[in-house]
Design goal:
Membrane topology (chain B): Multi-pass membrane protein
Number of domains of chain A: 3
Radius of gyration of chain B: 20 Å
InterPro entries (chain B): ABC_transp_permease
GO molecular function (chain B): transmembrane transporter activity
Shape of chain A: globular
Keywords (chain B): Cell membrane, Membrane, Sugar transport, Transmembrane, Transmembrane helix, Transport
CATH class of the largest domain in chain A: Alpha Beta
Largest sheet of chain B: 2 strands, antiparallel
CATH architecture of chain B: Orthogonal Bundle
Number of strands of chain B: 2
Number of domains of chain B: 1
Oligomer: heterodimer
CATH architecture of the largest domain in chain A: 3-Layer(aba) Sandwich
CATH superfamily of the largest domain in chain A: P-loop containing nucleotide triphosphate hydrolases
Helix content of chain B: over 70%
Helix content of chain A: 25-40%
CATH topology of the largest domain in chain A: Rossmann fold
Strand content of chain B: under 5%
Number of helices of chain A: 18
Distance between the termini of chain A: 62 Å
Structural class of chain B: mainly alpha
Strand content of chain A: 15-25%
Number of strands of chain A: 22
Strand order of the largest sheet of chain A: 6-9-10-3-11-12
Protein name (chain B): Simple sugar transport system permease protein
Strand order of the largest sheet of chain B: 1-2
Largest sheet of chain A: 6 strands, mixed
Chain lengths: ~525, ~300
């Protein structure tokens, strides 16, 4: 197969001095699915941004169909036939599918007006041609995530893309949606399209790609035939050591109930129940996982428990204390820790130093706070201790948090939350978007704390994580408990998918007495 | 107070409502376009004030009312451009930049007026022109409707026609689609090659143009002179009208009419023995009540559903 695209000696240094790519060679053959793998901060996104014209490299050349090209902007890339499906969808929610499709290349009638009918027709044509069914008149905000992604792919195809870059496309999908996406990608591949697929997930990459490029610390670790390389070899190349993907853990020995909810409900501003009549409990020394497609009330449930939102109906008890009317601080004082979903908004003060962030939950503790001034020395020594214990890679406690990589920022959050001797940890997507090394570290810590008797409520979109870590497992769908498994190790992934998509719901008696009723 | 009702239900009052709604409507349409593009223009007040002076000065200088109108609109557009340059190129906070324009206008117009006419308060020494009124042929003869709808200043008709034009612009043209896309998700627009900056420049310049029309109406239609601070908060009332209008051109029309009615009522009440300071409060009080009702309704709609759920 001929080479459609090649990048040679790409070096990219960001203004803040971070070398994102160093002398990277990369090439793709026409009609293949090519994976780009690497830990967070390995330079995958930067390399793809360069390829899509969003960033300019300091050094290096890009060849497209044998010709040297300079990609000034996404527009240039699109004109050459390079399209990108971003991880965060580039869609306008209030507009229709057809309007999103033609944005920027709007068809006109009588030379001034927007021709909506034509837009619908164009959408239908592309949709039929590539067998990606979508309703052109649907409003984008009503679409499921999988459909939005489909729309993004169609947008690129409409603009004449021959090379499609997909940035972690499966991160937001259910197992069923992922399967559908893979079928569509293979279908596109058979029609001659070239697909570049960015992912962390080894299993998927083995399943769908022809070749793969591994990046580590901004350098390429070579291009490999997917069939010829083992999963262990890939992870060794990615992190430079063999990552244990299985979490070693002993069976749980649950004790007393730590958190219990009764008929917990939350209604959003429009009055819709986002969390509906949830009753469950988590015991000491137990990890209860919550699986579910994002946006089925998990985020709100976490906010209710941690006091960021107040329940509309129902009660929450932590260690027997009703917490419904308590402040966030009072709930934290009940030894509740919270790893928030969005670390940059709720997890850290990005402009603050690592030290400041590490003590932000306990700066007023007498140990660190004198009558008038803070006890700087004990603050510093505690920060340094935590940085060491949690292996935060940084220049010291005075470094700004937003200078760190995602994985290290999350380690700062985790260090703070895990070091306060918690009785309950509410972990919302604790390893989202971070590198394998940090992920493994955080997962191991969670299991350690469980063994020490902490109750853990784990919300994660990563099914493997939920299945691997959880002792018991709950599935949320539409704000309700769709299923409960006393023993998470007995759960089948495909069956779980059925509950997650709402295709199946357990009856009350199937869930057993364990949900607190 | 019986005679108050006589006043309100008279054709004169209806005529007055349309007349005083005109500047508010212009400004709120301008604000609407800017907000749709995600760049709120709160300098409508200062822009209208500056445009009002520009209209008077240029019409006096050229001897042409039309020339004054064009001048006012161009000045409005230039101020929109200035705001865009500050906010989009120099990356200043758009609210602060707009406040600066408002302050600059309130002082600058007094200075400008003094330089041009030697007066500090009013431009009556300038031979400025007034934009024509239009009698609508058949409608003019019809009782009640005629006195209400006919014989308005040309800009009053332009304002009401603009509602439909803005609707077509925002919802039926590629530019409108782009404006809405940019305002809602600039990254999405950017990723398909739409220049966010250019689109926002266009929106701010258009909002300035509408403020220019509003300003021209004030000094060359509503009255025939410029006086200091003559916009008297209409540019801010327009922002409230935009918010209450739910971001839709026809919603904005209705809320502008509401505030226009309050304004007209204040004018009518001046005939009674009520302290004029109190009467002049009416439009602003209505603005505040309007905003409270708006917020309350959003709140109670949510609460109602919540209670139904509980039952």
């Amino acid at each position: 197969m001929e080479e459609i695209l090649a990048m040679k000696g790409i070096t990219k240094v960001y203004p803040n001095g971070i070398v994102a790519n160093k002398d990277v060679d990369f090439s793709v053959r026409k009609g293949e699915i090519h994976a780009i793998m690497g830990e967070n901060g390995a330079g995958k996104s930067t390399l793809m941004k360069i390829l899509f014209g969003m960033e300019q490299p300091e050094e290096g050349e890009i060849y497209y169909k044998g010709e040297k090209v300079i990609l000034h902007s996404p527009n240039t890339a699109i004109n050459y036939g390079i399209g990108m499906v971003h991880q965060h969808f580039m869609l306008v929610p209030s507009l229709t599918v057809a309007e999103n499709m033609v944005l920027g290349v709007e068809p006109k009638k009588s030379s001034v007006l927007f021709d909506f009918e034509k837009a619908v027709q164009m959408t239908e044509e592309v949709s039929q041609k590539y067998n990606l069914a979508i309703d052109p008149k649907a409003i984008v905000e009503d679409l499921a995530v999988g459909k939005k992604q489909k729309l993004e792919i169609l947008k690129a195809l409409l603009r004449g893309a021959e090379v499609l870059i997909l940035d972690e496309p499966t991160a937001v999908l259910t197992p069923q949606e992922t399967k559908e996406l893979f079928e569509e990608l293979i279908n596109l591949k058979n029609q001659g399209f070239t697909i570049i697929f960015i992912s962390h997930k080894l299993k998927e990459i083995k399943q769908i790609t022809d070749r793969l490029t591994i990046l580590r610390n901004g350098r390429s670790m070579g291009i490999h035939e997917t069939k010829a390389i083992s999963e262990q070899e890939i992870s060794r190349l990615m992190v430079g050591r063999d990552v244990v993907l299985k979490v070693d853990k002993q069976p749980a020995t649950p004790g007393d109930v730590v958190i219990e909810t009764k008929g917990l409900s939350y209604h959003d501003a429009t009055g819709k129940p986002v969390v509906n009549q949830m009753s469950f409990r988590v015991r000491k020394g137990e990890i209860m996982g919550i699986a579910g497609v994002e946006g089925n009330g998990q985020g709100e449930l976490v906010e209710l428990i941690t006091g960021l939102k107040k329940p509309s109906v129902g009660d929450i008890f932590i260690g027997g204390v009703p917490v419904k009317d308590l402040t966030v601080k009072e709930i934290r004082n009940l030894k509740t820790s919270h790893i928030p979903e969005d670390r940059m908004v709720y997890g850290v003060a990005a402009e603050g130093t690592i030290g400041e962030n590490l003590i932000s939950d306990r700066f007023d503790h007498p140990k660190y706070n004198g009558k008038l001034l803070q006890k700087v020395k004990s603050l510093i020594s505690r920060s340094e201790e935590l940085i060491k214990d949690y292996k935060v890679k940084c220049d010291g406690h005075t470094q700004q948090v937003n200078m760190l990589s995602g994985g290290n920022i999350q380690k700062v959050v985790v260090a703070r939350e895990f070091s306060s001797d918690p009785k309950l940890i509410v972990a919302d997507q604790p390893t989202r978007g971070i590198d394998v090394g940090s992920t493994e570290f955080i997962r191991r810590k969670l299991v350690e704390l469980r063994d020490e008797g902490t109750a853990v409520l784990l919300v994660s979109a990563d099914l493997n994580e939920v299945l691997e870590l959880s002792d018991s497992l709950m599935v949320m769908y539409g704000g309700e408990i769709a299923a409960y498994f006393e023993d998470a190790s007995q759960v089948d992934e495909m069956e779980l998918g059925m509950y997650m998509l709402g295709l199946k719901t357990m009856e009350q008696h199937e869930m057993g007495g364990a949900t607190g009723e | 107070m019986g005679s108050l009702f006589d006043i309100i239900f008279s054709a004169n009052f209806g005529y007055a409502v349309l007349r005083v709604t005109t500047p508010i409507l212009f400004a709120s349409l301008g604000a609407l376009i800017s907000i749709k593009a995600g760049v709120v223009n709160i300098s409508m007040e200062g822009t209208m004030l500056t445009a009002a002076l520009a209209g008077v000065a240029i019409s006096a200088y050229t001897g042409s009312a039309f020339g004054g109108l064009v001048g006012a609109v161009v000045v409005g557009m230039l101020l929109g451009l200035l705001l865009a340059y500050f906010a989009l190129n120099l990356k200043t906070d758009i609210i602060l930049a707009a406040i600066a324009i408002n302050l600059m206008a309130s002082g600058g117009t007094v200075f400008g007026l003094f330089v041009i006419s030697g007066d500090r308060g009013i431009s009556s020494s300038l031979a400025s022109k007034v934009l024509p009124r239009i009698q609508i042929p058949i409608l003019h003869q019809i009782p009640v409707l005629g006195p209400v709808f006919s014989n308005h200043n040309v800009l009053t008709y332009v304002a009401f026609i603009s509602v439909a034009l803005v609707y077509i612009l925002l919802y039926k043209t590629p530019l409108g689609l782009r404006i809405r896309a940019v305002g809602e998700n600039a990254h999405a627009a950017d990723s398909v090659g739409i220049s966010v900056k250019k689109t926002q420049y266009i929106a701010l310049i258009m909002s300035g143009a509408f403020a220019g029309f509003g300003g021209a109406f004030m000094s060359m239609g509503y009255v025939s002179w410029f006086s200091t601070n003559m916009i008297a908060g209409r540019g801010f009332i327009a922002l409230a009208a935009e918010a209450l209008g739910m971001g839709r051109p026809f919603g904005v029309l209705l809320t502008s009419l509401l505030f226009g009615s309050a304004d007209a009522l204040a004018n009518a009440l001046q005939a009674f023995r009520i302290p004029s300071e109190f009467v002049q409060m009416v439009p602003y009080v209505v603005t505040i009540i309007g905003l409270v009702v708006y917020a309350q309704r959003k709140h109670s709609a949510a609460q109602k559903v919540r209670q139904e759920d509980r039952a």
